[in-house]
Amino acid sequence: MKNDTIMVTGATGMLGREVLERVRRTGRPVRALTRRTALPDDAGVDWCTGDLTTGAALDAALAGVGTVVHCASDIRHFKNDLPGLRHLLEAAKRAGVEHVVNISIVGVDRIPYPYYKVKLEGEQLLAGSGIGWTNLRATQFPGLLDLAFGALSKLPVVLVPSGTDCQPVDAGEVADRLVELALGAPAGRVPDFAGPTVYPAARLAEDWLHAAGKRRAVLPVRIPGKVGAAWRAGHLAAPARALGRRTWEEYLAERVAR
Hints:
Elements: E1 5-9, H1 14-26, E2 30-34, E3 45-49, H2 58-62, E4 65-70, H3 81-95, E5 99-105, H4 114-127, E6 132-138, H5 142-152, E7 157-161, E8 165-166, H6 171-182, E9 188-189, E10 199-200, H7 201-212, E11 217-221, H8 225-232, H9 248-256
Parallel strand pairs: 1-2, 1-4, 2-3, 4-5, 5-6, 6-9, 7-11
Antiparallel strand pairs: 8-10
Helix pairs in contact: 1-6, 3-4, 7-9
């Protein structure tokens, strides 16, 4: 008998929280994985502890799970992402998990940025796992851009890569798509999911500064090497996959504007 339980990894993160709420709305049994010992008190969610980096307690956490939506990632310590995914897939196989849905990033196969290389290797690891899998690549979350500009604006001048386009996509809309995929059959790599509008990076910074009420100069800087060339080639965006509806301006008005 197929198990209906869906587990969300990275369930306390920016995307994981959105996925968790949407899985709960489906009425399916939902389990959330966290490293924390003090678990959130969320009605209808089975919180469990487990450590992807070490593999500790994953067998117990995955017992009875049919589908995993893998949102766990840490850009600050991204070298842990691959061991974490490897431990997850090994435990998932032992538990008889039938479907792993993974979130990745548009451009990971064309931009030789270290974090992107890890994400691409993770995609390859998933595809070779022997478990049914689905992989979705998305463009940039406004919440992450918000954090980045908040940090950059502490300096007198906000530096941004020149000639670089971005295409912010609402994390909630990506979560909707991930849950849709989780409720379906394994589909391999599915078409990318991008926001409704492509913006130059400098325009995003200027919009953010205006909304935040900060007076700073924005200085586009040419990024050297293969990474800079890939950014200028437009590989951070996916104009043909502009499926998102919520705009950058709407995000700023709701979350940043003073």
